[in-house]
Amino acid sequence: MTDLAVAVPEPIVGRSLWGNAWARLKRNRAAMFSLYYLAFIAVISVFGPWAVQHEYTTIYGDYVRTPPSFSAYPKPDMIQTALTDAIKRMRVDIKEWHQDGSRVIVTVTSKKPIDDRYIRYLDRSDAFDDTRIESKSPDGLEVTMSSAIKQQYFFFGTDNTGRDLLSRTLMAGRISLAIGLLAGVVAGVIGVIYGATAGFAGGRVDEVMMRIVDVLYSLPFIFFVIMLVVFFGRN
């Protein structure tokens, strides 16, 4: 007598509600594109401020309201203006200057002996760095200096005080995410505690607490914002 192999059908496993929702979401291309886009914005908002060149609080006085650009600042037509402004603070006169690659060579003269510490005025400029004295006349009335052109990139430009808009935009995104997460956590905690208290007490306590919620829901949110701005000020 032979045993016949009986094929046992595999049990059918149904999808959960989350599985059904995820399957429907993946079939919607616009929704998936939006999901990936929001995830990308969240990632660059969190990690982007560490990758950019500038701090969001740094002020560049020589680059106020500069337009967005993928090329480095200062532009060729901006070097002379930046050099003249820096030399003017030294209270000396420019005899001649020229650009040699990534450095500028400038010769200055004065009626009084020129202090070697004057080179710090060039280093304080946003356009120049690594300034050193190349030569100096015996009487100290003429000095030749060289300074490296400091390249700065402002992909989003700068604001009216000279702050980099890219770093400030990324920091604004990080702050917005933090506020959204914090508001969700606070609202969840308060809502759970408030609802649990109302449900546990029941009776008139529940009725009163629910009517308070109804009153708060009926008031426009913009009025609360206006009251907070008036009470605490714009900042």
Q: What fold name goes in the CATH topology slot of the domain at 76-149?
A: Gyrase A, domain 2
**Count of separate DSSP helical elements:** 7
Number of strands: 4
The Cα radius of gyration reads: 33 Å
> Which oligomeric form is depicted?
single chain
Overall description:
The protein has 235 residues and is of the alpha+beta class. It contains 7 helices and 4 strands, in the order αααββαββααα. Among the domains are: 76-149, 2-Layer Sandwich (Gyrase A, domain 2); 165-232. It has a 4-stranded antiparallel sheet. A hairpin with a 2-residue loop joins strand 1 and strand 2 (103-109). The chain starts with 16 loop residues before the first helix and ends with a helix.
What layout of secondary structure does this protein have?
Blueprint: H1 17-27, H2 29-51, H3 79-90, E1 93-100, E2 103-109, H4 120-123, E3 128-136, E4 142-149, H5 165-201, H6 203-218, H7 221-232
Antiparallel strand pairs: 1-2, 2-4, 3-4
Helix pairs in contact: 2-5, 5-6
Kindly list the characteristics that best describe this protein.
235 residues; alpha+beta; Gyrase A, domain 2; 4-stranded antiparallel beta sheet
